[in-house]
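Q: Give me a backbone?
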Amino acid sequence: MISAKKIIPFFYLAMTFFIFSCGSNPYAKTNKMYKKQAKAYSKELQQLPTPENQKESALDYGDYWVGTTNFNLRKPNYVIIHHTAQDSVRQTLNTFTLPKTQVSSHYVISKNGEIYHMLNDYYRAWHGGVGKWGNNTDLNSSSLGIEIDNNGKEEFTEVQILSLIELLKEIKEKYNIPAENFIGHSDIAPARKVDPNANFPWEHLAQEGFGLWYDESEIEKLKLEAEFFKPNPLIIDLNSRLNTRIPFIDKLVFPEVIPAGFNVEKALRIIGYNTSDLQAAKAAFKLHFIQENLNQPFNSYDLKVLYHLHKKYL
């Protein structure tokens, strides 16, 4: 008969092993599913376009297969930034590991700055949904998705942004992504999405080389036509001085005037916005670049920012 003294240590040893095995990685099961799916895609990529594999096709293939020697993997050319709109990073990780949700992202950044790399960069994540940027109507196929743990209303933590910037530096260098191709979910889907929220530091990211921004000093120089051409009691009557040289005229610096016919819709399209719903596109522009008075119509300052920015994208 086994004594209790021998059973108790064995029980504690078994419990310790059980706790350790369960706590080491709570996503071990879904990681296994990831590996299985990745292996299946790898096998699919290894299928060669040989005549044997083309027998069922009605196309007129050549007599023999010729494989090119010049190729590599396709790479991402955009980065789409999101907020999770969920209550915790654990909830988001669970959402992205449930097949029924049909949503995913390449990266998730927690409030304490931890980065979860959930999908190989060369795979297509399901993060953008239906959207458009310029003429690109399938952003999922050409972008990386980065989700930041945020319920949609709160401030982003300092360590989150620090981790994001370090991640973006690595991504930009690795894939040579242009600065203007770092955008938000609301930019590509203005009628559906509002992430990342108005607390997101787009200006700071632009200063680091991720996304474009405007120069405040240049905005101050701009004038709307209605502002510039208006009655001014200080205007000199030059008709009476046609034969007199006025020295200060040579030193005048005239502001750049935005014409009354400035086409807001065309400018938004030049930047990349889908203007099929013009009001939604204008709201998305304000969410990204103005970040205040979001429910108000465009004012003169908003128009100046748009005018200045659209020339950067030309």
